[in-house]
């Protein structure tokens, strides 16, 4: 299933699921119309759905199936569903699929091609950093580049969504903790990333500026992606391909990343673990983002995440 958080013109964020025809079903409204009852919290909020595990997914799939079946009929409920619970993608506002994750974890230099283009030796084990909650922005929303920045850059990445709480997770069972996958663009300010003598990279301003982590447009549940280490990924700036590669090029695979990330850190349902980027970043090519550029980050079997670059004034 493809799951998203969205709103209509009326307001508050809602939990949605894509129907087979590409439209969005408002899960909470559909439940209320189908069963004449208030939907449980697991069908109104993405983090609650994820935390509910298989029970929540089975219930959501049942609601989706019942709604699709009723919509094909000529009943009064079908008319109500079509009018109030089904929306075209063009008519909705996207939100980050998980608007409030406890943690958004990233890994530096995790593709062989990226290490080669930067002319650096890959780390001996995953080198992790975090991006703060203020960085998350949805599909279709602008990425605001701070007025003090001069070298904004793009990084298309496969992001893992955590489905279960876990600490000291062994890599042999780590995939059991995965809920699904989405796309993230780790927008970075290279001029602010320059290491300070004796202190290292300036992570805060280089990576955690407002709107610096576009994510979405939705989460694809892990049952729909048999092998997350064999997906094509690409990033275009306007109509030009800047990055292209495959997740097969990862240095450390998802089980190893989760094992290292959970060393003393409890992973929670809804946490995000980005997995690195392939070659083609501006830090290597010298080609940085400009005001008005449109970034399109795509991953096979997931979709396309589109965001415009806007320079702050």
What does this structure look like?
The chain has 313 residues and is an alpha+beta fold. 23% of the residues lie in helices and 30% in strands. The chain folds into two domains: 2-93, Roll (SH3 type barrels), CATH 2.30.30.230; 96-311, Fumarylacetoacetase-like, C-terminal domain (Fumarylacetoacetate hydrolase, domain 2, Alpha-Beta Complex), CATH 3.90.850. It has helices at residues 27-35, 46-52, 54-71, 76-84, 112-118, 190-193, 203-207, 254-261, 282-285, and strands at 2-7, 14-18, 24-26, 86-87, 93-95, 104-108, 127-130, 136-138, 143-145, 152-153, 156-162, 178-185, 188-189, 213-221, 232-237, 240-246, 272-274, 294-299, 303-311. The strands form three sheets. Strands 1, 2, 3, 4, 5, 6, 7, 8, 11, 12, 14 and 17 form a twelve-stranded mixed sheet that branches. The mean pLDDT is 96.
Task: Briefly characterize the structure.
The protein has 313 residues and is α+β, with helices and mostly antiparallel strands.
What percent of residues adopt helix (DSSP H or I)?
10-25%
Number of helices: 9
The CATH topology annotation of the largest domain reads as Fumarylacetoacetate hydrolase, domain 2
Tell me the name of the CATH homologous superfamily of the largest domain.
Fumarylacetoacetase-like, C-terminal domain
**What radius of gyration results from the CA coordinates?**
20 Å
Mean pLDDT: 96
Strand content: 25-35%
**What is the CATH top level name of the largest domain?**
Alpha Beta
Morphology: globular
The CATH architecture of the largest domain comes to Alpha-Beta Complex
Strand tally: 19
Poorly predicted segments: none
C-alpha termini separation:
40 Å
Secondary-structure class: alpha+beta
What letter string, H or E per element, gives the SSE order?
A: EEEHHHHEEEHEEEEEEEHHEEEHEHEE
Number of domains: 2
- Biggest β-sheet: count, sense, barrel? 12 strands, mixed
């Amino acid at each position: 299933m493809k799951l998203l958080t969205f709103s209509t013109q009326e307001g508050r964020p809602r939990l949605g699921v894509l129907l087979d025809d590409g439209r969005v079903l408002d899960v909470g409204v559909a439940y209320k119309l189908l069963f004449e009852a208030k939907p449980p919290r697991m069908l109104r909020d993405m983090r609650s759905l994820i935390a509910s595990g298989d029970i929540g997914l089975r219930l959501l799939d049942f609601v989706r199936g019942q709604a699709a079946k009723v919509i094909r009929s000529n009943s009064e409920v079908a008319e109500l569903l079509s009018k109030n619970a089904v929306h075209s993608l063009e008519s909705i506002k996207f939100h980050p699929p998980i608007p409030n994750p406890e943690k958004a974890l990233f890994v530096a230099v995790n593709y062989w091609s990226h290490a080669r283009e930067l002319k650096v030796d890959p780390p001996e084990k995953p080198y992790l950093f975090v991006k703060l909650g203020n960085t998350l922005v949805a599909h279709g929303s602008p990425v605001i580049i701070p007025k003090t920045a001069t070298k904004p850059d793009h990084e298309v990445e496969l992001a893992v969504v955590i489905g279960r709480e876990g600490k000291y997770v062994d890599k042999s069972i780590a995939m059991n903790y995965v809920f699904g996958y989405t796309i993230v663009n780790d927008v970075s300010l290279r001029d602010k990333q320059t290491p300070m003598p004796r202190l290292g990279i300036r992570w805060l301003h280089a990576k955690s500026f407002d709107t610096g982590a576009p994510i979405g447009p939705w989460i694809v549940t892990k049952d729909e992606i048999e092998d997350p280490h064999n997906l094509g990924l690409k990033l275009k700036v306007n109509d030009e391909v800047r990055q292209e590669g495959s997740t097969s090029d990862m240095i450390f695979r998802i089980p190893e990343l989760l094992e290292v990330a959970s060393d003393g850190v409890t992973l929670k349902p809804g946490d995000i673990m980005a997995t690195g980027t392939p070659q083609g970043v501006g830090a290597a090519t010298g080609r940085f983002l400009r005001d008005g550029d449109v970034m399109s980050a795509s991953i096979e079997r997931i979709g396309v995440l589109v965001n415009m670059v806007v320079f702050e004034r």
